Amino acid sequence: xxxxxxxxxxxxxxxxxxxxxxxxxxxxxxxxxxxxxxxxxxxxxxxxxxxxxxxxxxxxxxxxxxxxxxxxxxxxxxxxxxxxxxxxxxxxxxxxxxxxxxxxxxxxxxxxxxxxxxxxxxxxxxxxxxxxxxxxxxxxxxxxxxxxxxxxxxxxxxxxxxxxxxxxxxxxxxxxxxxxxxxxxxxxxxxxxxxxxxxxxxxxxxxxxxxxxxxxxxxxxxxxxxxxxxxxxxxxxxxxxxxxxxxxxxxxxxxxxxxxxxxxxxxxxxxxxxxxxxxxxxxxxxxxxxxxxxxxxxxxxxxxxxxxxxxxxxxxxxxxxxxxxxxxxxxxxxxxxxxxxxxxxxxxxxxxxxxxxxxxxxxxxxxxxxxxxxxxxxxxxxxxxxxxxxxxxxxxxxxx
Amino acid sequence: xxxxxxxxxxxxxxxxxxxxxxxxxxxxxxxxxxxxxxxxxxxxxxxxxxxxxxxxxxxxxxxxxxxxxxxx
Lengths: 400, 72
Description:
The structure holds two protein chains of two kinds.
Chain A: E1 7-9, H1 23-31, E2 34-38, E3 44-48, H2 51-58, E4 63-64, H3 98-107, H4 112-136, E5 140-141, H5 142-147, H6 149-159, H7 163-177, H8 183-206, H9 212-216, H10 223-254, H11 256-264, H12 269-280, E6 288-291, E7 295-297, E8 300-302, E9 307-310, H13 312-315, H14 350-367, E10 372-373, E11 395-397
Parallel strand pairs in A: 1-2, 3-9
Antiparallel strand pairs in A: 2-3, 4-6, 5-11, 6-9, 7-8, 10-11
Helix pairs in contact in A: 4-6, 4-14, 6-10, 7-8, 8-10, 10-12, 10-14, 12-14
Chain B: E1 4-9, H1 19-23, E2 28-30, E3 37-39, H2 49-58, E4 64-69
Protein name (chain B): Ferredoxin
């Protein structure tokens, strides 16, 4: 016997507290794990708000991640072009076996061990950012001066962007990350990055280096596929880590008892990062999965072609999985959090993200004593309406 | 006597995220070339049961299965 299924129009986006998911999502989760979601374009899909069902859906091969199934769950100012079918090399929007082929090729580049070899370079980059912040003196914008440059520079390292091209390249990636960019500006930046990566692929084929793209030129991927994969990694690695760094510092500064625990015992850092990823869950629109066939979920029939949106922020605040889930607790057991997603599409760059977060936080906390945000939390502009949640900017000062 | 834990992995479904190696480094590691799972200890001792179970639960692609058998 199925109880009443709640129904909502569009995905709730407004947050009463900047660190918590919208209240409506918790209310839905209390009523049922699965709700009817009416997308703005009229598509009748579904919304998953609890942890167990989120894992179930994301691990079920009867659900597809291909672009054909996409419907955007919120009205938005900035339209994003949706390529149907998925463009060559944009592997994250493929299903097995095509997806598996890419993932296998790339996974070796992102192993725990390989990421450890990048740590000295991440440390240099983080230190250089702090050097510059100290040179200019407080205040600084932590998002612009620290959180964005670290993943941007690391992406350049990873795919082997030559030093002389970096400034022009990062100028364009910054446009993609910048809230204030117009859709025309974003379009131009996109085109530039795409062209640049295409040329880079050709250059690596001719003269391979030690980087990821060079490594991939030895595979059977075509230039077009390599370009698509390169662009996918750039975009995926940029905004997510940058927002996680700045928002994480913001959350720590808003929870001084937790920050004190960490400053007192930096061995807590690794668990603290997992907890911050759980607590903040910056991927707040999607993932989406399209049913390849009729699937029964929790006694409900999901029909072939219907889209199921999994709310990762809601799943990560499920009291059935995490005690007192709305509390930031750096010492809690975070096993099973879905901050990086779940299933075969779980974040491919997660070990790099962890390394960047670990080093970023430790450099910042070590070198900028008395770090504080210069505005009250309610005056910090949040990225409510963006695909990746975070702060628009974070003005900080420290004890000079 | 605690139960015995026997680890089975399926490299065909493994996606090489390294979540197991991160969660239980004493029990799991990754292949260099494609990141897929390598079991270091097929029957981990009782002191490793908790992290091994966490690794199996955390595995995003369901590539780790644990067989529990009661010790006679």
